[in-house]
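Project outcomes to date are best conveyed with an example. Our students and postdoctoral researchers have been running inverse folding experiments weekly, and each run begins with a structure described purely in tokens. The record below, which covers 575 residues, was selected by the lab manager from last quarter's runs and is presented without edits.
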């Protein structure tokens, strides 16, 4: 009886509360007639965005298609297509007015593609939206006119990006982060080397790489393509021998019934010093170059013979050239390239100049870095404009929008950045380029990030009336240095396209506007401690305390360099 009374009391209490809700002006839920279907469905494709580019090592990759469909009455069917082929059809929904879905497509090949989403409501009204995207190879030949045949950047992988071929790895070679270009370089180890499938290049070819010679061991094979461990009448052998202080690089070329010797030149062993090494072979001669300068020429009685050659050995004499103890090479190697013709001295010098570019973003409808297979993160909704200086498009900034890329491989002791810039003075201050550390004392406060003891901050803010002033701040380890040129660094708000550049060396930092020096400040070198990302067209997320946020200006032809450019080199970039 007690239990029954409690249940009755609870029921009465519920009825009283329900009744009270009505008296308090809160109506119970009542059905509403849907009314007439007056509008077509709304379709939004959130990913991929228009013009997106997939850039991965895999020849076939996957993409997640994210979309949203909204209808005023009821959605009947959604169809998702890739390149005109249906990959998904949906007709059952938890919410029949708002649908947010994701569909995976796992057969994205190199080339241009389209994603189409079509939504139909219960009255047959239909809306179709299409976006275009592309998948590019992980590497587009940088020197196609030179007959580029093989490219191994050694950025954490032993792979030829021209063919996506991986060598056989013998022993335990590794990588060093002290690369000439990119994030890493090949680091040899005892009894370790690479064997790349290779059958030759014709009678004319070139090999090119950056090399940090090590005198221990005192002799080693560097690049070898041979066929027989008994003689040297096929292929070639580039090797070194000497002392802990000096090493001589030599080349031997097999001509079928004989061999040709090129006694090369001497490299001084200096820790941390990169030298560009190249050699060319023609029907009649071989030439060895150091830093673009020919050091020795050898004569060939006949063209090179590739009979029986099956592999290119990297960092060792390999199975065909170990009999004189030219074994493993402990010297770092970076940016190895082969070309299927003999380059001229001028072309080799151009290779060296191009190797100074560590980041290259032309913004021709994509945010790709052409200098490296570097991941680019898009924050917000920046875009493109056909109002460009170079190519077909330029970056167009937007509120709350910017790009970030990893800074690995970009933080060199000497540094330069160049760009074309078309000023939009709203907002009246903005970040342009920032490589800075996280302000850990203000972790969790993204609006107050302002640690300036390492990296750099290139930005703008109000100058003279009707002008914006461009400034550079450089972190030197314990402190920071300002490169503030005053009115000399002012650009009129309506100036249109101007060329901006800044350089950082061991002793000075300089800002240039249209090739003219706006300001120079003495520095004690740059520190990169704690830096990991580059922000492009915003101070966020590492330089926000003073309101230098997203820049709505236009940006074109952005490049970073691993050296301090001269004024003459900067001026040569300006028509």
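After processing, the design step wrote out the following sequence:
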């Amino acid at each position: 009886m007690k239990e029954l009374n409690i249940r009755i009391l609870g029921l009465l209490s519920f009825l009283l509360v329900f009744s009270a809700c009505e008296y308090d002006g809160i109506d119970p839920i009542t059905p509403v007639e849907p009314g007439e279907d007056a509008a077509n469905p709304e379709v939004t494709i959130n990913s991929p965005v228009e013009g997106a580019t997939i850039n991965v090592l895999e020849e076939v990759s996957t993409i997640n298609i994210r979309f949203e469909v909204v209808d005023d009455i009821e959605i009947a069917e959604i169809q998702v297509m890739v390149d005109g082929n249906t990959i998904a059809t949906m007709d059952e929904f938890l919410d029949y007015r708002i649908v947010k879905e994701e569909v995976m497509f796992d057969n994205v090949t190199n080339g241009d593609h389209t994603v189409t989403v079509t939504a139909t409501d219960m009255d047959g009204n239909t809306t179709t939206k299409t976006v275009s995207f592309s998948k590019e190879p992980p590497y587009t030949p940088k020197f196609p006119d030179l007959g580029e045949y093989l490219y191994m950047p050694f950025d954490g992988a032993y792979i030829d990006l021209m063919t996506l071929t991986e060598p056989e790895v013998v022993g335990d070679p590794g990588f060093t982060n002290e690369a000439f270009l990119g994030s890493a370089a090949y680091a040899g180890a005892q009894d370790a080397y690479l064997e790349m499938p290779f059958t030759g290049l014709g009678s004319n070819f070139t090999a090119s790489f950056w090399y940090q010679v090590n005198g221990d061991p005192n002799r080693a094979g560097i690049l070898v393509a041979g066929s027989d461990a008994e003689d040297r009448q096929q292929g070639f052998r580039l090797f070194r021998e000497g002392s802990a202080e000096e090493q001589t690089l030599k080349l031997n070329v097999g001509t079928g019934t004989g061999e040709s010797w090129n006694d090369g030149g001497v490299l001084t062993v200096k820790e941390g010093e990169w030298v560009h090494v190249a050699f060319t072979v023609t029907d009649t001669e071989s030439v060895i170059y150091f830093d673009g300068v020919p050091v020795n020429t050898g004569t060939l009685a006949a063209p090179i013979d590739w009979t029986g050659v099956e592999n290119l050995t990297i960092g060792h004499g390999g199975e065909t050239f170990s009999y004189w103890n030219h074994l493993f090479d402990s010297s770092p190697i970076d940016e190895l390239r082969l070309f299927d013709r003999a380059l001229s001295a001028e072309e080799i010098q151009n290779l060296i100049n191009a190797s100074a570019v560590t980041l290259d973003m032309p913004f021709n409808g994509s945010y790709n870095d052409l200098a490296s297979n570097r991941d680019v993160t898009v924050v917000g909704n920046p875009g493109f404009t056909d109002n460009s200086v170079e190519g077909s498009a330029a970056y167009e900034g937007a509120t709350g929008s910017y790009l970030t890329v990893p800074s690995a491989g970009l933080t060199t002791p000497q540094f330069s950045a160049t760009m074309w810039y078309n000023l939009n003075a709203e907002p009246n201050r903005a970040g342009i380029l920032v490589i800075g550390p996280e302000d850990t004392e203000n972790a969790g406060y993204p609006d107050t990030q302002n640690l300036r003891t390492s990296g750099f901050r290139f930005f703008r803010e109000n100058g003279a009336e009707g002008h914006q002033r461009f400034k550079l701040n450089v972190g030197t380890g314990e402190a920071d240095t300002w490169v503030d040129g005053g009115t000399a660094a002012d650009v009129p708000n309506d100036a249109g396209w101007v060329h901006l550049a800044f350089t950082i060396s061991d002793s000075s930092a300089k800002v240039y506007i249209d090739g003219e020096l706006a300001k120079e400040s003495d520095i004690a070198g740059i520190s990169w401690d704690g830096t990991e990302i580059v922000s492009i067209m915003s101070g966020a997320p590492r330089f926000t305390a003073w309101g230098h946020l997203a820049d709505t200006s236009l940006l074109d032809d952005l490049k970073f360099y691993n050296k301090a450019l001269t004024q003459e080199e900067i001026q040569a970039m300006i028509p």
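Residues 144-355 form a domain with the Jelly Rolls fold (CATH 2.60.120.200). Residues 66 and 121 are 19 Å apart (CA to CA). The training component of this project remains on track.
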